Amino acid sequence: MNESLTAAYRKAGAGVPDYADASRAIDTARRRRTVAALTAPLLVAIVVVGGLALGVDRTSDTALTPPATQERSPEPVDALSSPVGPNSLWYRSCTANGCTIRTLANGGRSVDLADSHPRLTETLADDGLADVTLSYDGNWLGVSAGADFTLHELNGRRTIGLPAGPPGTTWRPYYWMSDSFELVLAQHDDDAVLQYAIIHTSEGADPTIERVPAPAEPTLVPAYSSFFFVNLVQAVDPSAAPSERPTLSSLSTWRLFTEGSTQLQPPGQARDLSGCMRPGETLAGPDGAPLEFTAAPATSTEQLTAIVVFNQNADELVPSGIIRGVCEDAPYAAPEGQRRYDLPQSDETTSWTLFGPVTHRWSLMGRVEQGSERMQLVVVGYRGQQQAVGEIPAKAEVLMAGVSNGLLG
Amino acid sequence: MSHYDGFEEFVAAQGAALSRAAYFLTGSDADAEDLLQEALARTAGRWPRIAASGNATAYVRQVMLNHTRSVWRRGRLVRFIPSADLPDRPRPDDVTPAVEDRISLGAALRQIGPRQRAVLYLRYYEDLTETESARLLGCSVGTVKSQAHDALTRLRRIAPELAPENNEVVE
Prior knowledge:
The complex is a heterodimer of chains A (about 400) and B (about 170).
Chain A: H1 5-13, H2 22-54, E1 89-95, E2 98-104, E3 110-112, H3 118-127, E4 132-134, E5 140-145, E6 148-153, E7 159-162, E8 169-176, E9 182-189, E10 192-200, E11 208-213, E12 223-225, E13 232-235, E14 247-250, E15 256-258, E16 263-264, E17 271-272, E18 281-282, E19 292-294, E20 304-313, E21 316-326, E22 340-342, E23 350-357, E24 362-369, E25 374-381, E26 386-393, E27 397-400
Antiparallel strand pairs in A: 1-2, 1-27, 2-3, 4-5, 5-6, 6-7, 8-9, 9-10, 10-11, 12-13, 13-14, 14-15, 16-17, 18-20, 19-20, 20-21, 21-22, 23-24, 24-25, 25-26
Chain B: H1 7-26, H2 29-45, H3 47-53, H4 56-74, H5 97-109, H6 114-125, H7 130-137, H8 141-158
Helix pairs in contact in B: 1-2, 1-4, 1-6, 2-4, 6-8, 7-8
């Protein structure tokens, strides 16, 4: 049958059943309104009681107990302990009764964050996690809403907001420095970048904002980061096929570099990673830029890195491996001598999704068996080991600390 | 007067059309039902204001498009390498030509990304211009063009009967 696509849609449309259920929609809406309505008067009552007897201020979200691993020490070489802690991952899970924002506690137990952060999670439960970023240390949550962006301290009460841009613009968070002291964002008007901003989250002091103007020539596509410096790498023309996306430019110098499929050339440092890659693989990610993560935490003498390698499978980019190493005078020399590890690949019965490298040794992935409604969260290690760290609904929306908006395509 | 006055009548009148939109945005019965119900729940929560605007259908459609957009921006896609068996094969006595067409198109749509599905739906089902599509999707006209081109290229490989070589709309 040789029909136009429009005719194919029309014909196929005739066979689509009516899924709409008004009663169920009203029930869901009523439940969400009831939850919201109950919260406000309860807080007021607590304030009155607290104000009279205890003087406790209950108007703000209760701070989470700081995680035990906040001052992290370097991982032992042979340790297989899970690198995924309570502040590594948030997810949004929806049922007929509504949506909740949850995290995984130690041991993989699912925890509802509404108790500790009722105001924030109420908004996120309704709007989703698409425009949200979580710092590596789990202390800061950034939310983009319309032309506004606000950064909230989860273990404290500091907040800072970026000035709202013109109507139709939006602030997109891109990356966190590994110590969670800087967040880099770009203000977008569609795909064009108007300006960049860096929020400095100083310990104990008020956060500050640093502005970085956009270049004279308008950019075409969003910029991604190299994760080492405040140095955004910009991809050009994402409509080109992955093998034809050659050009990167540096935010700090606005110079253009040519990126072959196996080489990265940031300012002052040429890095040839061809020895870690196979035919058909590329470092150019979904928007033409490499996806490179600074493993948290950074020590005083080295920064550990993980770079995602993609396989160009039928014009789709599938994460196939992680190149790991150290960025210093001898770049990408992995301590144990093994520079790359492979990621599990999807097949007919099992789907794998990469959420991102947690450290340079571990990457967090989700595994779903066909027909299952549950996703098993698995950390995949540099020696091929896999360790289950918890389970979430297969359709849950996931926010991983340090991995910013849309970074994995 | 109830908060939801008129909502059931709206759903009864527009449910079938919105269901088609949800299906073409997802390519799957299960996902389409989830997408549409979530959009209807959000609409019901704001019903008095939406009803007063007179654009309830457009609102629901925009909520579904926004959800699709947020899926691709988060970058997570649960997918399986396609096998010969289609997951939602109907019983033999349920198979009409329209159902067969739906399954064939749905199977093809599931092999392209959510952003490409949204672009094809707006351009080839809703018959919108590139500019109108870009406005609804919150992206540039260039993105709409490139996504449509990539989607049609892929469709030609996996389902040539759906997208012959000369099928692209020229404006």
